Structure formats: C-alpha cells, structure tokens
Amino acid sequence: MITSNHNPYLLYLVTDDQQNLTTLEHVVREAVVGGVTMVQIREKHGDVRAFIQRAQTVKTILQQAYTATGRHIPLIINDRVDVALAVDADGVHLGQTDMPVTMARQLLGKDKLIGLSIETEQQLIDCASLPIDYIGLSAIFATATKTNLITHWGLEGLQRAAAICPFPIVAIGGINHTNLTEVMAAGADGVAIVSEISHADDPRQATMAISSLLNDNY
C-alpha cells in the first residue's frame, strides 16, 4: 500500500456519463471542495467532441482548484487515449478491450498515469509486467452501474489481490459509506465512487462524509 501522506487514489470520483454537462460541472465542483483526490471522466456514447468538451470543462475546474488551494487533483480519461492527448489530461484508465497498455504508454510518455481494469485472477498476474501506475479492481461488490462483470472479488479477493499486486489498487464496484472501512482494511489504496457522489442531493456533503471515513481508516 501507498505510505505517502499524499495518495491521489484515495477518493477517486468516476463521473456519470448519463448526466448533462451542467450537472457534471456542478457535481465535480462540489466534489472537489468536498475532498476528492482524483477525477475520471467517463463517456460511453462514442461522441468524441462531447467527451472532449466534458474533459475540458472538468480540467478547468481542477485547474481553478489548484490555483486556489495548491492541491493538484489528477484528471483521468476513461478508455480514450486520443481524448487524453487532446486535452493534456494527467492520464488514462484502460479496460481490457481498449488500446494495449504498451501502445498507450508509447503515445502518452512516461509521465502520464495509466490505470488498468482488472477483472480476473489471470489479468491480475499478467499486469505485473505492464507499464501501468495503478489497477482498478472490478468489481468488489455487485453494482447497478456495471452489469457485464466477470468477477465479484469480494473482500477476500481484494485481500488476495493486495498481497500479490505490485501497484496501488483502486477498488471499484458497489462501494459506499457502509463498506468503505472494510474495503480499505482489506488492502485497497483507494476507492472509486460513482453514484454515492454523483447522485447525492448534496455532492459536497457526500464527498466530505466519504473523505472523512477514508482518512479515519487509512
């Protein structure tokens, strides 16, 4: 596990691609104030221009936060290396059917972050030799936002992964305030949150509550 005081993976917001730009902007602004440590922009509709617009909007929010507080919150693009390059994001998060990691690293260079979704034990073993920075272990618990899952790792699976994975682990899937403590205790370096923040009546308050729990248990 990461031992540094600064852990960018601790509270990893994954945006909801069903939300319009205005809602997305509101959620991210509030979540930034509330304490998110990383933001991943997701866009599953194949509209590259919309993806770029969403990414640029969020990048502006994160840059404003850095100017105001000195706190750098990395911007991660889901799936699309071209979009990450277009907006000069901090990195990409790739799935197993996206661009191969080695090719993405060649295009992005050594200083960008690359995360990889891991869904099986074999993928977990294979990732050790890849030029990545972290893994997204998916899915820890059943979730309504991802229905095409290969594995539900559960807490025992997360413990096994933490014992053998050489990279920081972001736990993904079905994570909320009721199971955060157990997930961190099982060896996660951070948690990816979607609906608990994006669909909250008060995204700032929801983020602050999760952040407080994480900091108490990390």
TrEMBL record:
Transmembrane segments: none
Binding residues for 2-[(2R,5Z)-2-carboxy-4-methylthiazol-5(2H)-ylidene]ethyl phosphate: 143-145, 174, 194-195
Listed pathway(s): Cofactor biosynthesis; thiamine diphosphate biosynthesis; thiamine phosphate from 4-amino-2-methyl-5-diphosphomethylpyrimidine and 4-methyl-5-(2-phosphoethyl)-thiazole: step 1/1
Keyword ATP-binding attributed: no
Pfam families, per database record: TMP-TENI
Co-factor(s): Mg(2+)
InterPro entries in alphabetical order: Aldolase_TIM, ThiamineP_synth_sf, ThiamineP_synth_TenI, TMP_synthase
Keywords: Magnesium, Metal-binding, Thiamine biosynthesis, Transferase
EC annotation from Swiss-Prot or TrEMBL: 2.5.1.3
Enzyme class: transferase
Residues at which 4-amino-2-methyl-5-(diphosphooxymethyl)pyrimidine binds: 40-44, 78, 117, 146
GO molecular function terms noted in the UniProt entry: thiamine-phosphate diphosphorylase activity
Ligand binding (Mg(2+)): 79, 98
Cofactor note: Binds 1 Mg(2+) ion per subunit.
Catalytic activity entry: 2-(2-carboxy-4-methylthiazol-5-yl)ethyl phosphate + 4-amino-2-methyl-5-(diphosphooxymethyl)pyrimidine + 2 H(+) = thiamine phosphate + CO2 + diphosphate; 2-[(2R,5Z)-2-carboxy-4-methylthiazol-5(2H)-ylidene]ethyl phosphate + 4-amino-2-methyl-5-(diphosphooxymethyl)pyrimidine + 2 H(+) = thiamine phosphate + CO2 + diphosphate; 4-methyl-5-(2-phosphooxyethyl)-thiazole + 4-amino-2-methyl-5-(diphosphooxymethyl)pyrimidine + H(+) = thiamine phosphate + diphosphate
Residue ranges annotated for the Thiamine phosphate synthase/TenI domain, each copy included: 11-197
Gene3D superfamilies from the UniProt entry: Aldolase class I
Family indicated by similarity: Belongs to the thiamine-phosphate synthase family.
Its biological purpose: Condenses 4-methyl-5-(beta-hydroxyethyl)thiazole monophosphate (THZ-P) and 2-methyl-4-amino-5-hydroxymethyl pyrimidine pyrophosphate (HMP-PP) to form thiamine monophosphate (TMP).
HAMAP family xref list: TMP_synthase (MF_00097)
Protein name: Thiamine-phosphate synthase
Annotated source species: Photobacterium piscicola
Organism placement in taxonomy: Bacteria, Pseudomonadati, Pseudomonadota, Gammaproteobacteria, Vibrionales
Gene: thiE
